[in-house]
Design a protein that fits this description.
Elements: H1 2-25, H2 38-45, H3 49-61, E1 65-68, E2 72-75, H4 81-90, H5 94-115, H6 118-136, H7 144-154, H8 159-173, H9 176-187, H10 191-206, H11 210-231
Antiparallel strand pairs: 1-2
Helix pairs in contact: 1-3, 2-3, 5-7, 5-8, 5-10, 5-11, 6-7, 6-10, 7-8, 10-11
InterPro entries: GntR_C (IPR011711), TF_FadR/GntR_C (IPR008920), Tscrpt_reg_HTH_GntR (IPR000524), WH-like_DNA-bd_sf (IPR036388), WH_DNA-bd_sf (IPR036390)
Protein name: FCD domain-containing protein
Keywords: DNA-binding, Transcription, Transcription regulation
């Protein structure tokens, strides 16, 4: 029941933020103007000031407004359709993305265990060698983590699955909330643990172990979720960890 209440509040601040964005687009609040005080906005929409504050933070994250302590909230730009499409990625929380990945990529790994060619396995092995070398060299520019997951999707020989995984990673790469969390991951040295997870996944694919590949991918993404949960600010309005449970591990028979 508590979870339903939290979900409703999150939806409210998104809706209020979207409505304020529309009003800015319509010229009701020109660039450089100040939005009404939080108290007035809260009365207009019949919600608490906390929800209004979260809506304004959402607009600030996308660059539409600037919240100036002690002065007010000022309009920085008029968001166009292209900006809105780009910012749609920003409104997807890190844990919402992880839940989608756990559901999709665990099944993809299981399918790849059946469909992967010898060349696919070799490409994955080479990628993990490069990932290991990059970690040893403190190289944060090369994203072999992403490449590894995309190669697994490609190993299903299904272009639609590959494009689906690619889209999720594009959302991740474009999401400032995710990037903020991921910056802490590198500093805390979790990359080695995730490399070990990748090696376990590859071992299952090489054995053509369908349930083993599913389990290894599921556990890897569970480890990622636990890590991000530990370093997240649970009081931040963009934190969505309490809304998205881990995908239940598959208990049926994978053949």
């Amino acid at each position: 029941m508590a979870k339903d209440v939290v979900l409703q509040e999150k939806k409210q601040y998104q809706e209020i933020g979207s409505d304020l964005r529309v009003k800015i687009q319509q010229g009701k609040f020109p660039v450089g103007s100040r939005l009404p005080p939080e108290r007035n906005i809260a009365e207009t929409y019949g919600v608490s000031r906390t929800i209004v504050r979260e809506a304004l933070l959402m607009l600030e994250l996308e660059g539409t407004v600037d919240i100036r302590q002690g002065s007010g909230v000022y309009v920085l730009c008029i968001p166009d359709e292209e900006t809105q499409e780009s910012q749609a990625h920003h409104r997807i929380g890190a844990f919402e993305m992880l839940q989608a990945r756990q559901l999709l990529e665990s099944n993809i790994a299981a399918f790849a265990a059946r469909m992967a060619t010898r060349a696919d396995i070799e490409n994955l092995r080479v990628t993990l060698e490069k990932e290991q070398a990059a970690i040893a060299a403190n190289d944060y520019r090369s994203d072999y983590d992403k490449l590894f997951h995309l190669q697994i999707a490609g190993a299903t020989q299904n272009q639609m699955l590959l494009e689906s995984v690619s889209h999720i990673w594009t959302c991740r790469d474009d999401n400032p909330l995710w990037q903020q969390l991921y910056a802490h991951v590198g500093k805390h040295g979790y990359r080695l643990k995730w490399l070990a997870d990748h090696q376990t996944i590859l071992a299952a694919l090489r054995r053509r172990d369908v349930p083993g590949a599913y389990q290894a991918m599921w556990e890897h993404l569970e480890n990622v979720k636990s890590t991000l949960m530990a370093i997240s600010d649970a009081d931040a309005p963009e934190f969505d960890g309490y809304l998205f449970d881990s995908v239940p591990i598959f208990q049926g028979k994978l053949v």
